[in-house]
Description:
By secondary structure, the protein is of the alpha+beta class. The protein has helices at residues 9-18, 22-35, 39-43, 45-50, 54-64, 103-110, 123-126, 163-171, 181-190, 215-228, 233-250, 254-267, 269-274, 279-284, 287-298, 312-322, 374-385, 391-399, 433-445, 451-467, 474-484, 492-498, 504-514, 533-536, 547-551, and strands at residues 128-132, 135-141, 147-154, 193-199, 204-211, 302-308, 346-351, 356-368, 405-411, 419-429, 521-526, 542-545. A hairpin with a 7-residue loop joins strand 9 and strand 10 (419-429).
Amino acid sequence: MPPAFTGTPQQQLAQMRALESNDRRADLFVNSFINGTEWKDEVKSLEKMSQITKSDVIAWAEKYLRNDNYAIVYKRQGEDKDVIKVTAPKITPIKSNRDMQSTFLAEITGTEVDPIEPVFVDYEKSLSKFNVNGLDVLYVHNKLNDLTDLTYQFNIGKQNDPALELAVGYLEYLGTPTRSAEEIAQEMYQLACSFNISIRNVFTSIDIEGLSENIPAAMEIVEDLIYNAVPDEEILESLKEDLLKEREDSKLSQDMCFSALQQYMFFGPDYIKKTTLTDKQISELTSEDLLLEIRGSMDCAHEVSYYGPASKSQVEDLLRQNHRIAEELKPLEKVMPKVVETPTSEVYLVQYDAKQIYYLQYSNKGEGLDVANDPYIKLYNEYFGGGMNCIVFQEMREARGLAYSAAARLLEPEYKDDSYKYFAFIATQNDKMKTAIEAFDEIINDMPESEAAFNIAKEALMTSIRTQRITGRNILSSYRNTRELGLTEHRSKKIYEVLPSLTLEDIKATQDKWVEGRTYHYGILGDIKDLDTKYLSTLGPVTTLTLEEIFGY
C-alpha cells in the first residue's frame, strides 16, 4: 500500500512525485530491501518526520556534528608544474565473439515469461483541447494525486532574442513592490509550489507546479513578479560579470568546446552569431531592456498546458481569474533553425591543449521525414550504435582498443521541415586519430554482421516498446513533439507492428540505403601539433576555427 500523505506541504509534494512513476516506486522497494528496513516503516516515514521538533534536530546536530569528526580539504589554484604525464598504455584488442553468449545469458534469454503487452498512447482519448479568451489550452486530467503542472509556452526563444536568457536569469534575483526575492521564495516554499522559466532555441516556457489547491496563489506570485519586478542595478552588474566569467570558463572545458563545435557544424556561423550576445552587447543591456523582454512576451500568443486534478471547467475558471491575458495577443510564428547540409566533405579543426581528441563526423543530405522508415532506422540504430552490445562499442572500444567512448546513429527529424542526419563520435588519444577515423569509416560503410547481436538488438527494442508507458504529464510533451513533426499519432505502434518481421538483411539494406557512401563534415577538437593534418586534408578542405568563432564570443 502507498504511504499516506502526511507532513508538511513540501514533504507531501516530494512524496507524491516519488510515487508517480513505476521507476520511483520500484526504487522505494529496492532501497528498503538494500537498507534492511521494514516496508511498514517506509510507509510511515513521513508521518514520523512530521513529528520531529526543532529540539530533536538540535539534539541530533549536537550529538553527531561535532568539532572532532570532520575533514578539511584545501584547494590550491593555479597549474601544478610537477604533474607527471602518463604515457598512453598499449591496449591489446579483444577478439570479437558476437555470436557467443555466456551460460548465464543463455539461461536468462531462454527463460519463458509472459510478455508484457504494449500500451500505446491515444491522444484523442488522453488529451483535450479547448480555448480560453483566445488562448489554446491542452488538458490532461490527473487522476493519481493532487499535483498540478501548469505551463505557458511561447514561440519565441534564443533564436529570436538571445537576451531572453539573461533576462530570465536576472528576474530570479528580483522582488516586487510588495515582496522581496526572499519573501517570494518563502511563500512558494510554504505553498509547496515552484516555478521555472526556461529558454530554448525556438520557444520559452513558464512552468508552475505544486499542490493543486495552491496553484492560484502561485500564479499570482509568478505573474506579479513578471509584471512588477523592481530593477536592481547592483544585481544586474554582478550578473553580467558572472556571465562573462562563465563564458570564458566554458572555453577551458573540452566538453563545452566540443559542444560549441557541434553546434557550429550543425547550424553554421550565422546561426551562432544570431543566437549569441557579444560581450559588448551584454555590457550595454539595461534593466529596462531585460524586464521588457519578459513582460512583452506575456502579451504574445501562447499555448497553455494543464496537468492536474481539476476539471476542464475549473481550469477555464482558473485561467480567467488568475492569468493575465492581453485583450489582443500578438501572433508569434515559430521559426525552426535550418540545419546545414553536407554536399561535399569538409574538415573543421579547433585547437585544444589535451592528449585526447574529440572527433565527430556529421552528414545531412536533406532527406525529409517518412514514418515508413521508422522500424528500419530504429532497429539499425539499436543494432549499430545502441549500447554496450552494439557494433560501434564492440568494434571501436573492445575489438580495436581505440576509445573509451564511441557512438554513431542516424538522427531522426525533430520537426516537420527537419531532415535525417548521420552522426558519429569518438574520444581517442591524439596518436590514434587516423586509425580511429579509418576504423569508423570501415564499419560505417561495411557494417559487421552478427545474427546474435541483431537478435539482442531486436528484442531490446521490442521490450522497450512493450514496457513504454506514456502517462500523466508526459502525454503533453509527447503530443507536442508529435505535433512538431506534423503527425497526429504516436509512432511506436506502427514500429512495433513491423519489427517482428525484420531480419538482419533488412538492417543491412537500411545501412546500404541510408548510410553507405555519405559525404561528411568532420570536426576535430584537439592539440593540432600532435595531429596528422596532412592526413586530414585527404578527407576534405581543412578550416581551422578559433574558440571565438565556434562560441560566438
